[in-house]
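pinning this so it doesn't scroll away 📌
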Amino acid sequence: MKNSMTTILSLATIALASSTLIAGDTTTTFDNGLEGWSISGRTTIDIAGGNPDENLHGILIDVFGADTRNSTNLSFLGDYNRFGGAIELSIDIKVNSITFFNSEVPRELVVDLRDFDNNNGFPWTSTWYSLGVLDSRVNNEWVTYSIIIEDTASLDLPAGWRGSGAEDPNTFEPILPEGRTFASVLESVDEITFTTFVPGFFFGFTNFDIQVDNITIRSIAGPCPADLNGDGDLNFFDVSAFLTAFTAMDPIADFTGDGEFNFFDVSDFLSAFSVGCP
């Protein structure tokens, strides 16, 4: 037990000392370039007319749908549990035109969080949520679409969220594959997309003229659990307090709340420490 405890404490000290991954609020305003984003592969940045100034502008002709996607910017990908609980995803969109057979039409907008791990013949496993409707006749000014995920570690799909990656044998609707959960997808997000490709639906050839700005992922966690000395900052003193409490098996170091003191408590503390204080 003593050797195991020493190993865990050493790992914690090394990880905290060398950690460079700090989860925090990230917004792509396109003032500094694409930062991994495109609109169905289109990468045109307009220097004016955004919300404000620079914005991503996509003009798509005869396509089935439009998606603003990113599979390279690690600030928007990976394990969403690093944010320490609740997070918000948001995007500003201006719809100049969506036409189908020369008539303006609405298209539903969903946020789709994709994990490319799938053994069912589908390109990915995902969980998705409807953010609203894009319609130039109603919202041809800048509109913010957003969703708050209250618990990134939830096993069940939260209200309004649905899954894809497998097919219901009776209704043929998209569902999460067997053995996959909401949390397991959010532990490994390989691509985030704000898209009109609603899983399970098909569309005809459509033309899009849309602008995108201020794509954001941000933590809205309340308390700061890693601030063990209560001074509002996360620093060496909190690390020291955790290591001291962990060694003494003080309940404040039981970050999993299971009454035991092991690597999982260290891991949870490291995650909370990397998030920072709101």
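📌 and the second one:
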Amino acid sequence: MTFWIFGIVVFGYLVGCLHGSVVAQWMSGVNLKETGVKNAGASNAMIVLGKRYGALVAIIDIGKGIAAVIAVRLLAVHFGLPADYVTLLLFLVGAAVIVGHNFPFYMGFNGGKGTATVIGVLFAIDWRFGLVALSLFILIAILTDLIVFGVIMLYITLLVMAIWMDGSWPILIAALLFIMAIWKHIENFRRIREGTEPRIRASFKKKRQKNSE
């Protein structure tokens, strides 16, 4: 059991370190860690580089969450592991991918905030919860004009999914990820209080004006 857990956590972390922002930097020449809100994620890519780069980063970061969870699921089926153990492994690898995205070793352990990656993890573990989470993320982000509140809903959905699956360890893992998400977004909440947090509609408007010039 220890071997499986250790191997899957290491695998998930390394997959999580594969950043879409690195691809965006290679294509655009812009380091997202040095501009905008200085976050290596899809939301900052959209704010700084526009919708196409935001979509590119999101696809890569969502994809790695899906790929890691599916790989572990297939491996577990191949070895005939018990269902409860499989659930634990899926949550473990999902958490490891998110942690790898947020704390990649080659970025000084200061990467993104896990938004796109947690969407991928949700879809891969249970596509129904993935659809619900993505719908709530979009709805809340649009209604509040702030991405951060949509992001928090993603982690709440992950916690609800863990409770629905009735696994004590998955619940603990999801709860710790939720706490991590709050901690990673403290700066966002501070900017909201100060009125300086980038708004979604303002970002789109800014890009349209720039493109028309």
